[in-house]
Recover the amino acids of this structure.
């Protein structure tokens, strides 16, 4: 059955791969499944056709036959369950991989998303410059124990899994802030994720799409 995902037609990051379709593309590349992309404008996200796919009017979504999913974590979970390559076969190790997916999405990502709120949604408030350091401190409170748990291992729990895929994707959002450099083992962990051939293919695909959108007709 063919797979179609949605992505920004014009990604606001201009091809840096920071939007959440990249993690879905990466998962599909890891398991070797081809996919089509339906690029959507900001306006199309809020139209009824897309609201049927995702009631919140966001990307990414995932269609496969009659199945339509939204939420990048749920999509990567589904891909990992349906296709070999992202979940270990041992049941306990699989449970831990799922735990790391949730940890990335529930315990780490929310603190990182606060940067966007502090910089863009609240950037014009008189207290904005005082809030940003607090936001960074809360991120450090998550990164410190994560770095301790990772130690000098390559991945969070043995072999690379969907848990690492989501965690690396979440941490990548920190790159522009420079905060990752304070945690060299985490920076190296993210670099290992980015060096995977499947990530490289996913990144190149989203970049090609962003570049084409910037120069239509070229
Ligand atoms: N929890 C959902 C998930 O994990 O799938 C969140 C999905 C989400 O936030 N989607 C964003 C979206 O569709 C794109 S990824 N936004 C449009 C809207 O809400 O109207 C978030 C994102 C956007 C832009 C950048 N960037 O430019 O760097 C990075 C990440």
């Amino acid at each position: 059955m063919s797979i179609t995902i949605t992505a920004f037609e014009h990604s606001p990051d201009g091809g840096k791969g920071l939007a959440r379709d990249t993690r879905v593309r990466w998962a599909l590349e890891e398991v070797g499944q081809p996919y089509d992309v339906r690029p959507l404008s900001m306006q199309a996200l809020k139209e009824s056709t897309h609201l049927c796919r995702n009631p919140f009017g966001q990307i990414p979504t995932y269609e496969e036959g009659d199945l339509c999913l939204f939420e990048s974590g749920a999509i990567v979970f589904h891909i990992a369950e349906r296709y070999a390559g992202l979940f270990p076969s041992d049941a306990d190790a699989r449970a831990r991989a799922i735990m790391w997916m949730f940890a990335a999405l529930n315990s780490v990502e929310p603190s990182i998303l606060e940067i966007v709120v502090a910089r863009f949604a609240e950037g014009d408030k008189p207290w904005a410059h005082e809030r940003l350091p607090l936001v960074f401190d809360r991120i450090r409170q998550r990164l410190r124990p994560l770095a301790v748990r990772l130690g000098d291992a390559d991945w969070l729990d043995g072999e690379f899994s969907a848990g690492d895929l989501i965690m690396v994707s979440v941490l990548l959002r920190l790159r522009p802030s420079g905060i990752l450099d304070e945690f060299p083992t985490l920076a190296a962990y993210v670099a290992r994720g980015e060096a995977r051939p499947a990530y490289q293919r996913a990144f190149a695909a989203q970049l090609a799409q962003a570049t084409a959108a910037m120069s239509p007709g070229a």
